[in-house]
Write a structure and sequence with these properties.
Length: 174
């Protein structure tokens, strides 16, 4: 980051390579729209590049990028209606046989729908915790809230997911 702040564009390119996929995946899960996620990821890095001077040494770079991405998502959401989609086929992965693949696909689709129905604040915190393994402090930094609120949002997201998924699990359905 120091090299990027000193004008080294290749150093900034390394940061983009390091964080692109993670930011894109997270924004996709928030927006449920691949094109929007791609646009928001590009916008995040453009804003980050334009604000390199405002990044302070000792600040968590990952949290800084996620905060920019989250703010971009919220701005985009204010101007456009969301569309719901399931996880892309490449996330589902291959199974041993057609029956297992169908069951796995159905289970992931059920999970994707349940995560997609979470309130945006809960979904954002939950995905940062589960997908990106951020600490509650980092989640709080990204979402500009307290650590306690970040913990509560992840807890409530898990609770809501269990409420939705437990009836299917108890029946042995995917």
């Amino acid at each position: 980051m120091q090299r990027a702040q000193q004008g080294d564009r290749s150093a900034f390119g390394e940061l983009v390579e390091l964080y692109w996929d993670r930011l894109h995946r997270w924004l996709y899960h928030l927006s449920h729209d691949r094109h929007m996620a791609e646009d928001l990821t590009q916008e995040t890095f453009l804003k980050a590049f334009g604000n390199l001077g405002s990044f302070k040494a000792g600040t968590n770079l990952q949290a800084w990028l996620y905060r920019i991405a989250h703010n971009s998502f919220l701005n985009q959401r204010r101007t456009q209606r969301k569309t719901r989609q399931v996880f892309p086929p490449d996330v589902i992965g291959a199974s041993i046989g057609p029956q297992e693949e169908a069951m796995s696909r159905e289970g992931l689709q059920l999970l994707a729908r349940a995560v997609g129905r979470l309130p945006t604040d809960f979904r954002a915190a939950f995905l940062l915790r589960v997908e990106e393994s951020l600490s509650f402090r980092e989640i709080a930094d990204v979402l500009q809230t307290t650590e306690e609120t970040a913990r509560w949002r992840v807890f409530k997201a898990r609770q809501k997911l269990m409420d939705v998924l437990s009836p299917q699990l108890n029946r042995g359905e995917p």
